[in-house]
Amino acid sequence: MLKPPAWEPADAEKTRRTPEIGDTIAYDRRAWIVKDVAAVPRDAWTETDRSMRETHGRDATPSLVTIHATTGTSSLRLRTWAGVVAWWIYPNGHYPVCGCCHEPVPCRAQEANQVSDVVFARALRFSEAGRCPECGGEVTANQRPIRFTENRVWPLGPAPIFHGHRKVCRAAAERYARESATTSSH
Hints:
The protein is of the alpha+beta class. It folds into 3 domains: 13-93, SH3 type barrels; 94-124; 128-184, no CATH class. 24% of the residues lie in helices and 22% in strands. It has helices at 47-56, 108-124, 167-184, and strands at 13-15, 24-27, 30-39, 62-69, 75-81, 87-90, 146-147, 161-162. The protein has a 6-stranded antiparallel β-sheet, with no helix packed on it. A two-stranded antiparallel sheet has the order 7-8. The two termini are 15 Å apart. The mean pLDDT is 90.
């Protein structure tokens, strides 16, 4: 199964610095304003705080960041560590939103469309008889073809055939066989 890429909001800059009061940030597919940043006193550090400090060095100090949604009334208090956690910050406070759902772009629908395009393009490679789905080339008998009896990517399509003499195509055939074995056992 193809996983969607991690969300990278448009026009935001990724940084490991702790956001400052007044920054507009992207978090959990929404835009937020930073209302408060408070260092966590050493006597209130958790085991995770101490572990972060040991792993990432003395600059990894914990802070509590309070954020308020730019739309609605939601607010959150997030624990973060300087130099460790990445933040998406809109440098000028402005952020682009989707005209349909009003999420910061790219929205979930845009990302779903991108993923479906990739999945469809992969499936389309399995729709042509006699062509290797990995490289797109025609497969002949003297190329040691690797044949399958069932097309699990394009169910009404022809039985897949891969080049057996090309390393990359052979590896794709092995991957297809593994995926087919996994799906047929369910």
